[in-house]
Design brief:
Structural class: alpha/beta
Number of helices: 7
Number of strands: 8
Distance between the termini: 18 Å
Largest sheet: 8 strands, mixed
């Protein structure tokens, strides 16, 4: 399966990005995948390969970190345990907190423009999926590009931080898979009320026995059953919203 490291021109420079897609010269629906706060690394490459194996062109940009260097922007251990997590996030949080909504939207313009013009990507709408902070970026991308994004998925993501007004503006089909430790039932209710108001086809649920980061196999938060549940929701969502050929 072809795997490429690419550079995407943006308003603020050039973003390195991972692209994975099926071999054979055919065109496939495009999926923009935003990583979690640790960025592009082996576990994200494996997840992108898994998704591409189901017939998608998957683009994983070094989202806002590219402004500080290519991925990984800080040294990451093979396994990100609690002690390592604290140290790494101490380095990354200032970079994350400095990232503005305006930068997110400028980058999203560049990423979607690049994705939809690749010769291996079929015509038609795309999907956006994200993990942790990437889920928030996915929401903002889908809201800003409502006519181009047919599906959005976010996992252990602070999607509520986008605000009820933004969630009400979604028109794409939605799946949010939340960690038990990330939000209260009341906060889940507020998110779902906003999605109800949007009138979109959605599922938004707390995955059982999960903590923040449950999809990431290189962290202590990893939950194999929850990762499989994530695929059980994500793949049907993409299958019913993206056009083949």
């Amino acid at each position: 399966m072809p795997t490429k490291m690419l550079h995407i021109p943006t308003a603020d420079g050039r973003a390195d990005a991972l692209a994975v897609f099926p071999d054979g010269g055919e065109r496939h629906p495009g999926v923009l995948m935003y990583a979690d706060g640790f960025g592009i690394r082996p576990v994200l490459r494996e997840m992108a390969r898994e998704l591409a194996g189901h017939g998608y062109y998957v683009l994983v940009p070094n989202f806002f970190f590219y402004r500080h260097g290519p991925a990984p922007v800080v040294e990451l251990p093979e396994h990100i345990g609690e002690e390592a997590r604290t140290a790494v996030m101490g380095q990354l949080m200032p970079l994350i907190e400095a990232h503005t909504v305006e930068r997110t939207l400028r980058d999203a313009d560049a990423y979607l423009g690049f994705l939809t013009t690749q010769p291996e990507v079929s015509a038609g709408p795309v999907a956006v999926t994200g993990y942790c902070i990437g889920g928030l970026l996915a929401v903002r991308t889908a809201v800003a590009h409502a006519g181009r994004v047919a599906a959005i998925a976010g996992f252990h993501a602070p999607v509520g931080a986008a605000g009820s007004d933004s969630l009400r503006r979604l028109i794409a089909q939605v799946h949010f898979g939340h960690a038990e430790t990330d939000l209260t039932p009341g906060a889940l209710g507020e998110i779902n009320q906003a999605l109800d108001a949007a009138g979109v086809d959605y599922t938004s649920e707390i995955y059982p026995d999960t903590v923040h980061g449950f999809t990431m196999a290189d962290t202590d938060a990893f939950n194999p059953a929850a990762l499989q549940l994530h695929w059980d929701h994500l793949l049907p969502l993409l299958g019913r919203t993206l056009t083949r050929g």
